[in-house]
Specification:
Blueprint (H helix, E strand, L loop, with lengths): L27 E14 L3 E15 L9 E8 L2
Antiparallel strand pairs: 1-2, 2-3
């Protein structure tokens, strides 16, 4: 297949019209703050809960936006 008019910032192997085909749509920066608690249950099981809020968010190009987040985690030590 012969590709014509490939933009300078596109990979020649990507021919589909997708937003991720351009390197300018990667990366960015964000700053978040979080507060959480965790506890150990029966000496081997740890459960944690964390609430996270984005303070500053900037994505390059078209990307999903960050929102508030709740994380529930479980760890088993052995």
């Amino acid at each position: 297949m012969n590709i014509v008019n490939i933009k300078k910032d596109q990979d020649s192997e990507i021919i589909a019209p997708v937003t991720t085909a351009s390197p300018s749509h990667y990366g960015g920066h964000n700053l978040q703050t979080a507060v959480g608690i965790n506890t150990v249950i029966m000496n081997k099981n740890r459960v944690g809960l964390e609430y996270q809020v984005p303070l500053n968010y900037h994505a390059n190009g078209i990307q999903m936006d960050m929102d508030n987040m709740i994380t529930l985690g479980y760890q088993l030590a052995f």
